[in-house]
Amino acid sequence: MKGDTITSNELYAAEKESGTIEEQVLNNFLLQVNKLTFNQTFLNNAFARISKLNTSVILGTFALLIGGAYLVYELQGDFEQFNLQRMGSAIGLSFMILAGALLAFKLCFFIYNVFLYLKYKPVASVTDEELPTVTIIVPAYNEGKLVWDTLLSVAASDFPEQKMQLLAIDDGSKDDTWSWMQEAKKELGERLTILKQPENKGKRHALYRGFNMGTGEVFVTIDSDSIVKPDTLRNLVSPFVKNEKCGAVAGNVKVLNNNKAMLPKMLKVSFVMSFEFVRSVESMLGTVLCTPGALAAYRSTAVFECLPEWIDQTFMGQPSDIGEDRAMTNMILKQGKEVLFQRNSHVLTNVPETYTGLYKMFIRWGRSNVRENLMMAKFVFKDFKEGSKAGARLLYINQLLSIVMAYPFMIFMFFFIAMHPVLFISSTFAGILIASSFPVLFYAKRHGISESVWAYTYSILYTFGLFWIMPYAIVTVGKRGWLTRELS
């Protein structure tokens, strides 16, 4: 930018001498150039401050974890005394037995997961001739220009145009989302159909309209703040061709906005663990528990079989306006169909950059998780599909335990803090160091070591700043509301 400023001054001198440009015009021109130079300097300084802050947070994370581990070593006698005291009471002994049994289950389940993960392979992409016809549905609410980016990324897919039907539905947005849809329509022409709901009725109703208009053999749903890669659609729908039992497929969700804010950096590592490890395991059992709203595909016949129940779903007498993806997944599993995961089908999506946005998203997910686990209990222990059902039941039990034990462990945590705060702090940080090392190593192996350490920071944040989400979601499970869809 400095070189540009010098060149502009030289241009000004030459033009002034020749008398071809008025001095006032040139002054305005130079002002804009210098302003651009200042803005670039400001941005560079901002990025430098962000980089320093990130480095400080990582160093602080390691200081806490190593300090916690050191204190555990130094306070071994105090921990032994604490455990003896617990064993001396009926309640304490019962809790120790319960915690030990749960830990043993989790360790065995983890080893089993590693075994399944090592066997997982995504389904290879099929040829153009084999590809099914697809209807891509993009519901949008208050997304602004992001919906334009999403639609153009979908249109750029390596997928036969004659086999694609692209629908974008504005769910009564209050911003300029509809204008950006119209801009996308101008660029894509007949390839894109845009629709506008007369009022905001919720994502479920926007998808319902798309399902009823769809003509494809497979429905693909994509969030309107997400970007797909050129081979995403092809890879996503290939399992339907290779596996006639396949009813739905989950895409591999990655974080798009992870360049600056700290929370997206943490979530980027968390998402890799959640999708590339956890859903790979679930896919091996044919029981991916949730097809994400950011990217999912459904066999159209499976959708129409449960569509009336899905759109009219209620909870505690109120229409369900959250968890539409988990609900659809449950209903397709209930049909006896398999739900798979395609690791090679990538979508980049925006995630919250603030603590407020993050906990609201987690509250919504938590409420949906509680609701759909109650629904899944109605069929998972029945003869709901051919073949082995042990894997599906094991996955369900693991999720159910996380919900059931939310309050007992929160009560124990508060008791531990009140009675032995130093022991609690030290043991918690040491536990995070041990438990989070696997996500760190997993991410480092898959995507590089430089960002993997954010898994430690995220675990600290979740343990101390988000532990209350599940207990709160349980007691407020009947509340409605998306929480994160309104304008700032």
Automatic annotation (TrEMBL):
The chain crosses the membrane at residues 53-73, 93-115, 394-417, 423-443, 455-475. Pfam families: Glyco_tranf_2_3. InterPro entries: Nucleotide-diphossugar_trans. It is found in: Cell membrane. CDD domains: CESA_like (cd06423). The keyword DNA-binding does not apply. GO terms for cellular component: plasma membrane. SUPFAM superfamilies: Nucleotide-diphospho-sugar transferases (SSF53448). Keywords: Cell membrane, Glycosyltransferase, Membrane, Transferase, Transmembrane, Transmembrane helix. Its main location: membrane. GO terms for biological process: extracellular matrix assembly; hyaluronan biosynthetic process. GO terms for molecular function: hyaluronan synthase activity. It comes from the Bacteria. Coiled coil: none annotated. PANTHER family: HYALURONAN SYNTHASE (PTHR22913), MANNURONAN SYNTHASE (PTHR22913:SF12). This is Glycosyltransferase family 2 protein. It comes from Flavobacterium macacae.
